[in-house]
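ARCHIVE CARD
Drawer: 12
Card no.: 0347
Subject: one protein chain, sequence and derived structure
Cross-reference: see card 0346
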Amino acid sequence: MDFALPLGFEIGSYAVLIAIIIADLVHAYRRPHIPTTKESALWVGFYVALALVFAVIMFFVGGAEPAGQFIAGWLTEYSLSIDNLFVFVIIMARFSVPRKYQQEVLMVGIILALIFRGIFIVLGAVVIEQFSWVFYIFGIFLLYTAFNQAFTNHDDEEEAENKIIAFLRKRIAITDNYDEAKVRTVVDGKKVFTPILIVFIAIGTTDIVFALDSIPAIFGITQSPFIVFAANIFALMGLRQLYFLLGDLIDRLVYLKYGIAFILAFIGVKLFFHALHENEVTFINDGQHVDWVPEIGTFTSLIVIVASMAVATIASLIKLRSENRKAFAADQTDSATESSDRPDAR
């Protein structure tokens, strides 16, 4: 469905969103600290509410279709951002980044993610405008990404990062210790790089990979560059606070990757159908051209995305609760056994 949003609304939205991100990043830079659970929850809730308010405003400005596309795109990008966050947790742990300075590292990661996604959004919009068949490529890529998401882990990424790290250590001086969040420090009168440089490179590489995944996914929901960019900004808002809110829980949401994989596969199929429509692929029945490809609407996509993430999250929490119960029962059994083995218990 075609629609047009007022140019003034788009420009005003860009200005407000960029101002909010800059204010958040400046706040993180000036107050490097470990956010409490309450503080993180309030900020995450604020950014989620902000996205929903934006969707309501878009509904009154442009109608139900752009508002629905924004919500579906935002939820898709948000789910992929959570997966991105999982990799950030691994990187922070692997390089033992002091928790106090993880906010600044995440800030750099978010800035890089915005830059890379912005570049890919512009390139994607130009390519789509010129070549409608590119949706076939996007569809294949998303199906491939969905398969990798479901059936591979991050070992290959870690191996690639280790090669990059070994390459850097051979060619530049990198100390083993951190100096707050500084990229360079002075050791024995010489300027050397700190491990934070390697962390930034690892996070930047991850951002590129996730940008490659996320942009085709959201272009499968909407072809509006404005909605694509807005959805990405809102998905990255509050990501830093979400990191501290979820903490180790991210690693325990074991079925989350399957939910994300299903969403990517669904959008990949949707892109194929869209490409067939764009290229007017039909078959002849009784001398008439018949459009045999089903059109997957925005609100169907929205239902699938919400249902996939809900099922994956609930299933993960149920498994986590079951494991905690088993661990508690095992501890109780061990305690009872130890008590019975004591001489005074006989």
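Annotation on reverse: Residues 298-341 form the longest helix (44 residues). Residues 7-151+213-280+295-331 form one domain.
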